[in-house]
Amino acid sequence: MIWGIIPTVSVGALLTLLALYFGVSRWVLVRRGQTVTARVTHLRTIHDHENNTDTYQPIVEYTWQGQTHEKATGIAASRPTHQAGDTMTLLIDPTNPTHVVPSSFAEVWMLPIFMGGMGAFFLGIGVVLLIIYILVF
């Protein structure tokens, strides 16, 4: 029984710590970041040979302080979310202009929220199992 509790609590704690790390880093980006308009140059097609499916990820070009950068942005999706020539607003880290995130709530906060939720779930189950173990044994 105890051997099932330790990994559950460990996974929960690890996911929670990662969520805190990504949450703080995204919060810093939102506070210090600048917005820049980018143009979608093309879509990267990612083929999954095992399932024989394609996903599409926008590749954007943006200019920051006179330098042009090209970067894959956003989450790859089974249906294209953008087309070549579309524009999107990016949140850019002024100290590291290659660190950009599409400026939308989902793109900025989805990872820390998801990881935090999963971490809380596993940590909660582990703590409940630990309490039951202590009370029963």
Task: Walk me through the structure.
The chain has 137 residues and is α+β, with helices and mostly antiparallel strands. It has one domain (2-136). The protein has helices spanning 2-32, 105-136; strands spanning 34-48, 53-64, 67-72, 87-93, 96-102. It has a five-stranded antiparallel β-sheet with strand order 3-2-1-4-5, with helices on one face. Strand 1 (34-48) and strand 2 (53-64) form a beta hairpin. Helix 1 packs antiparallel against helix 2.
What's the short version?
With 137 residues, this protein is α+β, with helices and mostly antiparallel strands. 46% of the residues lie in helices and 34% in strands. It has 2 helices and 5 strands; from the N terminus they run αβββββα.
Question: What is the strand and helix layout of this fold?
Answer:
Elements: H1 2-32, E1 34-48, E2 53-64, E3 67-72, E4 87-93, E5 96-102, H2 105-136
Antiparallel strand pairs: 1-2, 1-4, 2-3, 4-5
Please give the radius of gyration in angstroms: 20 Å
The tally of helices reads 2
Q: Biggest sheet: strands side by side, in what order?
A: 3-2-1-4-5
- The poorly predicted ranges are none
N- to C-terminal distance: 10 Å
Order of helices and strands: HEEEEEH
Oligomer category: single chain
Number-wise, the strands total 5
SS class? alpha+beta
Report mean pLDDT, rounded to a whole number: 92
The count of domains is: 1
Shape by Cα distribution: elongated
- Amount of beta strand: 25-35%
| Percent helix | 40-55%
The major sheet is characterized as: 5 strands, antiparallel
